[in-house]
């Protein structure tokens, strides 16, 4: 629990320092406009790309194929959009990395590893209708 708390403190301080540096570099108003713009873009991506990704997963399942890769892409796209919607430049950077197809491939093995670990511990449940 202490590691998580410490991680949040370090993240918040790094984000604040970056906001101050960028604010001094391009101006406070431009910094605020940039934060608002990336938030709007993130919300748009979650809404539109998220629905397209969910449809791809449904189509994959309808064809009788395992939805693994399509499901992982959906989760990573959604996560990237949410991170873009959150205010801050560090979250924007990670969100953009998750949205770009060439860099998303770096995160796929990490996500698969995390998912397998959760499934082995019984912390990941799949509900079928």
UniProtKB/TrEMBL annotation:
An annotated GO cellular component: membrane
Protein name: Exlusion protein FxsA
Domain of life, per lineage: Bacteria
Residues annotated as transmembrane: 29-46
Alphabetized InterPro entries for the sequence: FxsA
Keywords: Membrane, Transmembrane, Transmembrane helix
Organism: Lysinibacillus xylanilyticus
């Amino acid at each position: 629990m202490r590691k998580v708390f410490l991680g949040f403190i370090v993240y918040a301080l790094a984000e604040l320092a970056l906001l101050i540096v960028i604010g001094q570099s391009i101006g406070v108003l431009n910094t605020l406009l940039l934060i608002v713009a990336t938030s709007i873009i993130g919300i748009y991506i979650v809404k539109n790309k998220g629905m397209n990704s969910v449809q791809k997963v449904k189509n994959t399942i309808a064809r009788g194929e395992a939805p693994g890769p399509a499901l992982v892409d959906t989760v990573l796209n959604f996560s990237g959009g949410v991170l873009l919607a959150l205010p801050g430049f560090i979250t924007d950077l990670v969100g953009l990395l998750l949205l770009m197809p060439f860099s998303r491939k770096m995160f796929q093995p990490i996500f698969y590893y995390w998912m397998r670990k959760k499934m082995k511990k019984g912390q990941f449940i799949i509900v079928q209708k």
